[in-house]
Amino acid sequence: MALTLIITGGIGWWGAMALIIERVRSLMNPDYEIACDVNPLLSCGDVMLSPQASLLGFPNPLLGVAGFVAPLAVGVALLAGARFDRWFWGMFVAGITGAFAFVLWLFTQSVFVIGVLCPYCLVVWAAVIPMFWATLMWTLGSGALMPRGSAVQRGVARLMPFGWVFVVATYAAIALTILAVFPTLPASLGWL
Question: With 35 labelled, which of 41, 92, 96, 124 sits at a CA distance of 20 to 30 A?
Fold first, then answer.
């Protein structure tokens, strides 16, 4: 669990920071060509200009740069042998669940409303998805969140070896949705 949090937290932080760097560079120089503007279907710049990119009045990646520090810190603490109370895990799972829900909302906005995909956003999404499923399953199945021996804990403990299936299913649902909405995307990338 510690390594999962460290790896996914690091990848998510990098993606969010890359978005902030691109945003700052584009604000400093209006002629700057944003590095993640690949083609009309893959464009961070188009997404950055949308109202959804600043949901709380400031760029969403700032939430990521600040928020991904928590899983990194928890992962390092777990690696060092730290133990946390049930209330802590409840708050942590709530935060990770909020991040997962936000990613799903951003996905639907990007695909169905804005009509453009942001490559660095995809990196952040790709990090949050396994972070969410691993955290949820581990906290419920290990007894960190639910009392050991409870029906929920025993049931989730049986599912824990198959947690990767939830991650793959989420990735597959997103990929299939993207391909259905943007059928020319593979050709635009030279994949066909």
Answer: 96
> In whole angstroms, what is the distance from residue 133 CA to residue 162 CA?
11
Query: What residues does 117 pair with on adjacent strands?
Result: 42
State the alpha helices, DSSP H only, in the chain: 2-28, 44-48, 61-67, 69-79, 86-108, 119-142, 151-159, 163-181, 185-188
- Is the pTM higher than 0.85? The answer reads yes
Is the distance from CB of 125 to CB of 61 less than 8 angstroms? no
Show the tokens assigned to 64.
């990521």
Predicted confidence (pLDDT) per residue in 104-129, tens digit:
999 999 999 999 999 999 999 999 99
For tokens 């400093």, name the residue: 28
Is 118 within 8 Å of 36 (Cβ atoms)?
A: yes
What one-letter code names the amino acid at 67?
Answer: G
Q: Copy the structure tokens of residue 122.
A: 């995809």
Task: Round to whole Å and give the CA distance between 34 and 190.
Answer: 20
- What does the DSSP 8-state code read for residue 172? H
